[in-house]
Amino acid sequence: MYRLKEGNLPEDPTAPADLKQLGYFVNKEGQFRMIEYPDKNFEYRYSNQDRLNEIRREAFQICQREEVLKRASALGLEKLYLPQLTYTKPVNEASVPILAPPAEVLKQRKRIIVLVQDALQDLGILAYRDLQRAAGVNGGSIINFVKQIVERSSDTIDSSALFQDGAGITDKDKETPAFIVMNCGQLLYSYKLDKAMTSRSWVSMPRKSACHEPAVITAMNHIPGNYDEKEHIAFVIENVIKNKDLVAEDAEVYVVAIQYGAAHLLELLDQDFERYGSRITALALAASRVSSFQLQNPQLKAFLHQRAREWVVEDNSDNPRDCIAMPAHYAKEVAAFSQSSSGKKAASSAGNKPTATQAINWLETTTAPNLISAVVSKVLDKLHHLNLANSTHSTDINTTYDDTICPTFADGTNPYNADECVFTSPGVQPAILDFFEEVAQNPGSFHNPVFPTFTPSEPSNNYIAPLEESPLEDANTLHEKKDELAVMKAALHDTPDTPELTAGRQKLEKRIKKLEDELDALAKKALSTGSLGAGEAMDVRAEMKKEAENRDAGKWKRVGDGPKVMFAGSMVDRELVEAVGM
How far apart are CA 277 and CA 300, in angstroms? Predict the structure, then answer.
């Protein structure tokens, strides 16, 4: 019998955590593209060997995480390590980082925004699906959201310069927003690599051989006080948000929770809302997938009706302002609230988007002494709880079955129809900030208004599907090729003109020229078959005419402008008369 010794097993594949060695670069728009093909995104199926693809993806995502954190640092956000509560990384001691401004900046801010990330993502990453494609490092992470907060807080900031890739703030003491990012994903600690990581990164760690199983997770690999997602959220609330050395006692706390992070937060609030929800001023959810029957706490249900909104995947609308669902008996609850003293006080501001004169400054500092801050905080808490109590007793929301937990809105343009991409959809982040600014007008007595429910339009019954051999296929192909050409030209524009990218740029230029020739032939074919609409046909004819003029420029000589002679009773150009032999 033969046996294979461990030393003779195939080696575990490796890949360098270096963008250039992996064959990628970051273009001017912050997109990760291939050096050889600057219009192509990351390709996971690099090899037929799944393990190599897995290792290579992890190496690539390590580079992506570094790019995100580098840009976050330029905006004033640093790593705060838990449970040590230090901005310096502990050496060989289990810890998990979150993102937050320096303590001296954080505790001065009047308003705090807290992001509870999805439990499957790395710190600062919103959706790898977006980050590795057109959205890039800024749109697929927290960077653009942080920049929107900064932009809304100052009229002197140059927005075009701020949203350039890699741009940061100049005065971190005054311009850094109070933005805290929880880390529900990286809750496993590797002493070998001395860092916290997700379960996906854990299975991608180097092994003895390609045949060995992943390293076994023991109790030592869990981080004290942050064993799982729910415990991590509780730790941040208790030791960061409620820590008067980090956050002012009278600061307003606005929370955004995404997908599984939202589900864990709601589960925690359902268990003890007084303990964990007393500091939350308003809550925005993104694809939580939590139904009303899963929640039992009446205070939490009232809070969700009064001070929360959710955005979910919606096929019939791509407008984040469209309300697609409301909780049962919600209108009665709002009517009861409007008759109360708090409701009458808030009637003038509830439900209205802040105008230019009501703009909220997210960089505003709190200047009240500690004693006054404590008193104000207690008064606001009592008003907050009183409003929730009134809302709880005003309806039978505790016993009524309803799938909707709060006013629910459609997501923006979400080409993947994925829950993880709801928060990164265009329009959702501004809608959430608008909601928070509504609450900030009157945080002590805010109540969601009654929203008109969006009704999708009925499809027309007069539509006739085209035949399989219809010439409309030529028009569809033409549109697809035009979109492809636009992407390639944008990629060429965004690719830096550097020596290492010269070969890739030249290849892309040749492919663009080839595709332009294909488009010309396809446009003529579509025009001849009549598959283009009237407006499109006119555009194609105009383009063809312009191209012909440019192509024939200088080849033809204009006639008829020479000296005139009398011919048949009229003055005619001499050259024309001579040309016909007269």
Answer: 8
Write out pLDDT tens, residues 491-508: 999 999 999 999 999 999
CA 311, CA 425: separation in Å to the nearest integer? 10
- How far, in Å, CA of 349 to CA of 347, rounded? 6
- With a CB cutoff of 8 Å and minimum separation 6, the contacts of 155 are none
The full DSSP string for 326-363 is: --TTHHHHHHHHHHSHHHHHHTTTTT----GGG---TT
Residue whose pair of structure tokens reads 């024939």 in the numeric block: 552
Q: Determine the length of the chain.
A: 582
Single out the residue of 85, 74, 110, 98 nearest to residue 361, CA to CA.
110
pTM: 0.86
Range 137-150 average pLDDT:
97
Bridge partners (DSSP) of residue 152 are none
CB neighbour class for 243 (10 Å; exposed up to 12, middle 13-18, buried from 19): middle
Q: Over the range 387-417, which residues count as b (16 or more CB within 10 Å of their CB) and which as e?
A: bbebbbebbebeeeebebbbbbbbbbebeee
pLDDT, position 562: 72
- Whether residue 336 is predicted with pLDDT greater than 90 in this model: the reply is no
Quote the tokens at residue 204: 């991608």
Which tokens hold the place of 111?
């308003």
Query: Which DSSP symbol is given to 222?
Result: B
CB-based contacts of 418, cutoff 8 Å, min separation 6: 127, 129, 313
Cα separation, 485 vs 479, in Å, equals 10
DSSP 8-state class, residue 141: B
Token pair of 226, please?
Answer: 């942050």
Structural contact between residues 419 and 425, judged by C-beta atoms closer than 8 angstroms: no
> pLDDT class for 254, splitting at 50, 70, 90?
very high
Distance CA 62, CA 510 (A): 33
Residue 542: is it exposed, middle or buried by C-beta count within 10 angstroms (0-12/13-18/19+)?
Answer: exposed
Distance of CA 147 to the CA centre of its chain: 12
Confidence of residue 352 (pLDDT cuts 50, 70, 90): very low
3-state SS assignment for residue 293: helix
Question: What is the spatial distance between Cα 146 and Cα 124, in angstroms, rounded to a whole number?
Answer: 11
CA dist., res. 560 & res. 576, Å (int): 7
**Residue partners of 516: CB distance under 8 A and separation at least 6:** 485
Name the residue among 491, 503, 486, 487 with its Cα closest to residue 28: 491
Query: Which residue intervals of 134-228 are DSSP H helices?
Result: 136-139, 143-152, 159-162, 172-175, 199-203
Q: Which two tokens stand for residue 74?
A: 């330029």
According to DSSP, the residues that pair with 252 across neighbouring strands are 111
List own/partner pairs for 169-176 with CB under 8 A and 24 or more apart.
Answer: 169/74, 169/75, 169/76, 172/76, 172/101, 172/102, 172/105, 173/104, 173/105, 174/363, 175/76, 175/150, 175/363, 176/75, 176/76, 176/77, 176/101, 176/102, 176/105, 176/363
| Per-residue pLDDT tens over the stretch 13-28 | 999 999 999 999 999 9
